Amino acid sequence: MNKKQKSYFKGLLADNAAAMDTIMNHQEDNGWLKAKTDDYKEVVTPSTRKQLEIEMQRLRDEMYRVNKPKKTSSYLNGYLEYMKIRRILYALFYNLFVLLLSTGCGTVNQAEKSDIVDEVNPFIGASTSVGVAGVYHGLGKTIPGATTPFGMVQLGPNTITGGDNGSGYSYEHKTIEGFAFTQMSGIGWFGDLGNFLVMPSTGPLKTNAGVEGKSAGYRSFYDKSSEQASAGYYGVNLTDTHIKAEMTAAPHSGLLRFTFPKHAQSRIQIDLARRVGGTATAQHVRVLDDRSISGWIRCTPDGGGWGNGDGKADYTVYFYAEFSKPLKNVGIWRAQIPDSAHRKLENVTADYYQEWITHAEVVDGLKEATGKHIGFYTTFATAHQEQVLMKAGISFVDEAGAKKNLKAEIKDWDFDGLHEQARKRWSDALSKIQISGGTDEQRKVFYTALYRTMIDPRTLQDVDSRFPGGDAKIHQAQGEHTRRTIFSGWDVFRSQMPLQSLINPQVVSDLIQSLTDLATEKKLPYFERWEMMNAYSGCMIGNPAVNVLAEAYTKGIRNYPVDRAYQLAVGSLDKFGNGRLGYTSGNLGISLTLEYAYNDWCLSVLAQQLGKKDDAERYAQDAFAYRNLFDADKGWFRPKDEQGNWLPWPTEGREKEWYGTIECNPYQQGWFVPHDISGLARLLGGKQRMLQDLESFFEKTPEDFHWNAFYNHANEPVHHAAFLFNHLGKPSLTQQWTRKICTQAYHNAVEKGLVGNEDVGQMSAWYVLAASGIHPIAAADGRYEITSPLFDKIEIRLDPAYACGKAFTIIAEHNSPENIYIQSIQLNGKPYYKSFLTHADIIKGGELRLEMGNKPVNTLAAD
Q1: Is the pTM here over 0.85, yes or no?
Q2: Distance (Å, rounded) from C-alpha 832 to C-alpha 660?
């Protein structure tokens, strides 16, 4: 056993030196444990008991083949007795088993896939802490719970209802309210979902979750050291009740496993009114038989939620749940909420409202109820370490759909088997990009980022393809189309949709089809910019769906009604655009004018490809509207009123946040002219002047890249800025800064994991693309800027329905933390002198080979 292997085992069993020494002594003469041990340094998911027995036997045969059998059995039994900690034991044997697979007892492909899925750390960025972030936006706001790629269910812990905590969970909280079946990841604006909140408990029933640090309730303190999250799994020990909670998921359903202490009054309770950012406004539940319940949860703007009601979220969650233990002692609690009561977030979190819930009527034996705030419970006795399971399907169509979803996906009570299915789904999804090289941290950050990009846009349809339409009717999806929801447009058009156009083009097609159908169902002549559960929420600005449509069409993604989508794009710009003034007035004018100008350019690109020459010329001309807000005296962009007068210039100048802009300042927003970089350079006095200003912009950025007045990676308006150097004759600076952002703004950590909100995959998608060595500026042109890859090799596996090649590989020779600069390029074995690739280059398949070095080279051409 070499030093690296010893180090691995010492790290895994650092709390048991005696067992460590024994293993080392027995293994010193064996040569079977080979390379790749550095890939298995963290505890992953427990195996099933049966699998463990098989693995243990294999380990006996291999670990002790140089010893006498009688010693093997006695040693192992003694070792098992000595450890006494099942979790550590499972982790040890699971990792040893994977090591055996990688050295010949299984296929290389199996080991490869296991490597990938085990790299995911769902805790990265899982904090909403404003204090740590130093700004009201907070941190990553990601969710650590169990989910599947683009699945309807996200089953995980919730620690808070209230404030701007859209994920419902923050790592620093010390208590857990319960485990919900639906969540949104990486968002602010008060959040939504967090429905069907399940909590195991013991002792007297409590009907209110309570507030951490303020009032008691059914929430429980938990052992932070016991908290585990991986792709498709979450587990934690609740210390108030000594219950272990575990959960895993399928696309439309989830399974919870609770390990109870010995107790005469154990319980599973479900808060049906719970909703992140507010409350469900009406709920219904009924007991069907001695094993199952069914019902619905109605959520409207009156109950807050998305934008505290301003986001117009209006949906119904239907559920069907089964229990492994008979429903012998059940009941319902119901709070008496006055008809006159307001029910927005500020109301439901107020003390008086919490009192109503705390003193809710509890009716033992009641098996059906409808109300404004109700909950269900089943009480039972448990033996020591008795496991009680609950599984549920959800639907946004009807109760029958929820039941059908569950019956199709979870046919038994095999928790570990379902978990393995979730891992397999993630393994297949994550294997679309294979990387080699990089540090352990960088691999974990990369695959966690890739994982985050495949949570949304999620499926809205059931297993039978039915879905709720924007007209409140039930529809049936046709062909290969999947109805999707959660389109964070202003964020995701920049990196997330360009990434998906490479690895999941059908998802992009589905999204455009979904937005097109939604507009038709609602009889509206324009696209929504931030869609959530069929709601036209109006969140943020611009016409991002137009950008995504133009990009998709350019890249050959066209499996949707193109003519209808084009009409909606035109309607969007007619309704939201720079209009007769040639700019948008007011104190958001810079952001709006520049975003609308880019929308115009995108539509001109689409019109040109569709042969609509007049439209193409019109929108191309409108795309120059950004010039109308450039103040030559100030040398930067400045908002105007409707009469064309400049708004007063602030003392802070272009660094003044919210001056003419949204969530940024003019210095940051002003770089957003992605479609006309040469034109922007002319306004700024030429490319050299622009280069100097852009360099200064980056050099003033703090080392940790947290929220600041310069390159603010914590928010989207500047996400293209580092790639502008490619157009200014300094591709080495694009390479330098993207590497720096990748290494200093992203970490395998909770609070330092992400510098800003994940924003439904955008923050992570930027990393995946930049770390791979490519990223767009104006995605509708089908161009990817080349930059310095973080890894030695990146293989992007292409979708045969949209690409003629099987894979596109990027190789960075002599890559290292010092060798960050591209010295020369070969594309498919031939010298290549451009600083960009086209989408057509990539989908043909092939190889981009980069020679890396430690000296800047600026010979690549931008044209």
Answers
A1: yes
A2: 42
